[in-house]
Amino acid sequence: MSSLKPCVEALYEGVGRVADRIPELPKSEVVLVRLLMLTAGALLREFEDRLKPHGLNDSDFRTLMMLYSSEDGSATPSELCVLAEQKPTNMTRIANVLAKRDLISRSHATHDRRQVLLRITPAGRRFVAKLLPPMFPAVAESFACFSATERKTFEKLLKKLALHIDRTVDTDACP
Amino acid sequence: MSSLKPCVEALYEGVGRVADRIPELPKSEVVLVRLLMLTAGALLREFEDRLKPHGLNDSDFRTLMMLYSSEDGSATPSELCVLAEQKPTNMTRIANVLAKRDLISRSHATHDRRQVLLRITPAGRRFVAKLLPPMFPAVAESFACFSATERKTFEKLLKKLALHIDRTVDTDACP
DNA sequence: GGTAAATAGTTCGCTGGTGAACTATCAGGT
DNA sequence: ACCTGATAGTTCACCAGCGAACTATTTACC
């Protein structure tokens, strides 16, 4: 399948050679970015492979999970856009897919008739409850190389990075 | 732009609520997967925004960089597919794009006439040399929240994870 | 109360990426 | 030499996601 080892090796060699020609290159940061994307990409592909037999892709599933895990099982498209990192355009398509399969229902909000209310159906909940457990072993296995301490450290650093990048992008956009 | 903070918060809350209903849920692993994808996604989007003015996307650029950073400035499409994590179909398109802009050249390998040899042109090298340096500050800033030790730790863990996942996926495919 | 600006969602046309089918070349056994 | 199967790359038809333009509703301001 998608073998990461050659990529990782080539990454280190390649960055070294580029740095020979362009010495200002921030080597360790570039390595981090690419490692991050490599890893995330591999995990995503594996996950989507497991989802495909059920006719969903990651964004569809993520959206459904947002509803499943929300306080009252409902949300508006715009809320879901923020949480599932999607653009409104695509959220319309996702809602269409999920609604067609009766995993969610569509209705109008009463207090603001522009808004649409998406709600997970009982069938949607059953679907999630059937779908999730078989995936647990694979997810656990992905991080089996980490000790409990390492997992904790990794999570702490990742979270710190995520929130830092968030701030960076925001301030980039404003001035 | 794409604010991560609400996503991160919703992630922790959501995983908690799901675990209430499905107790076997491997909470910390799920959090890690999503954090990883969230972060990688945000970095990718930011990077592509900086690339867009030059008319390239991430895969195009990554492919060009593979040639730039290779031993002799050349490679076959299949080699690039492995290194840039692309399917042959898409590599054809990428090669078309880069060749049309004279950043790379196409020729046939002599010893095996099935193979195509892609080679970065002098113009391609100049393009990379012009393009890269202005991006360095942003890349450095992305990881500015890390101390030197943290960066080192993070890289070590990421690399370990990448190689572990690699092995996992491989052995998954075989039996 | 009525017009202007903002907001929620959808539709449309386009780009990027994929699997399946195809062509051309090479390698191996007979 | 010749057929079989593998390999490198391309073409084609399709899906997912995006920006721009549009509709419907709400809010703000005079």
Question: What would you say this structure looks like, in words?
Answer:
- Two copies of one chain form a homodimer.
- Chain A has 175 residues and is mostly helical.
- Chain A has three domains: 1-53, no CATH class; 55-132, Winged helix-like DNA-binding domain superfamily/Winged helix DNA-binding domain (Arc Repressor Mutant, subunit A), CATH 1.10.10; 145-175.
- Chain A is 67% helix and 7% strand.
- Chain A is built from eight helices and three strands, in the order H-H-H-E-H-H-E-E-H-H-H.
- The first copy, chain A, has helices at residues 5-21, 27-51, 58-68, 77-84, 88-100, 122-131, 136-142, 148-173; strands spanning 74-75, 104-108, 116-120.
- The first copy, chain A, has a three-stranded antiparallel beta sheet.
- The radius of gyration of chain A is 20 Å and the shape is elongated.
- At the A-B interface, helix 1, helix 2, helix 3, helix 7 and helix 8 of A face helix 1, helix 2, helix 3, helix 7 and helix 8 of B.
- The structure holds a DNA duplex (30 and 30 nucleotides).
Q: Could you outline the blueprint of secondary structure elements for this entry?
A:
2 copies of one chain form a homodimer.
Chain A (H helix, E strand, L loop, with lengths): L4 H17 L5 H25 L6 H11 L5 E2 L1 H8 L3 H13 L3 E5 L7 E5 L1 H10 L4 H7 L5 H26 L2
Antiparallel strand pairs in A: 1-3, 2-3
The structure holds a DNA duplex (30 and 30 nucleotides).
Protein name (chains A, B): MarR family transcriptional repressor of emrRAB
Keywords (chains A, B): DNA-binding, Transcription, Transcription regulation
Organism (chains A, B): Luteibacter jiangsuensis
